[in-house]
């Protein structure tokens, strides 16, 4: 499946940072290969609100952060990228206008979140992953296997709608599982806000998708 344009554009803008293997706080010195002073960061708003653009000088990169924060943000980028692959399929394969509308909403939310998460990593001198940087998805919760993605890509109409809703619910539930440690053990304010946004928005979308499944 082709690499998503939105992810490619976001990472082309922000992919410059890399870090030591075991970061523990924002005082960690970024590598010479990555500047942390150039790219803007999108700070996610509350569910239903637009993300706000903040300049590098406004991003609290000096705040304390820990490995829980960094792991969540790093892994959520390819996780979101797969969600965008799923929503892209819905435009040409879904039968239900409600499913198509939901897919557009998910894409509109998670695209900017990828940019925000990429900016968070860059501002802290950490490597920004590409969509396929984690072989076999590193056991991330909710990620579809290549076989499941192929099955979804081959489906059309009502069969696609059912598969899309079922698998996107599982994908969202995986995101909630990934966000939970940050909410209890994270220390960075922006990382916590991103985890809270993931939790709030994806819980709401799970409810919508469950109702759509029940109506089929």
Per-chain topology:
Layout: H1 5-14, E1 41-43, E2 52-54, H2 67-93, H3 97-123, H4 146-154, H5 157-185, H6 189-214
Antiparallel strand pairs: 1-2
Helix pairs in contact: 1-3, 2-3, 2-5, 2-6, 3-6, 5-6
Verbal overview:
- The chain is mainly alpha-helical and 216 residues long.
- It has a domain of 150 residues: Ferritin, core subunit, four-helix bundle (Ferritin).
- 59% of the residues lie in helices and 3% in strands.
- The protein has six helices and two strands, in the order H-E-E-H-H-H-H-H.
- A two-stranded antiparallel ribbon has the order 1-2.
- The longest helix is centred in the C-terminal third of the chain and has 29 residues.
- The protein starts with a helix and ends with a helix.
Defining key terms:
mainly alpha; two-stranded antiparallel ribbon; disordered N terminus; Ferritin; 216 residues; 3% strand
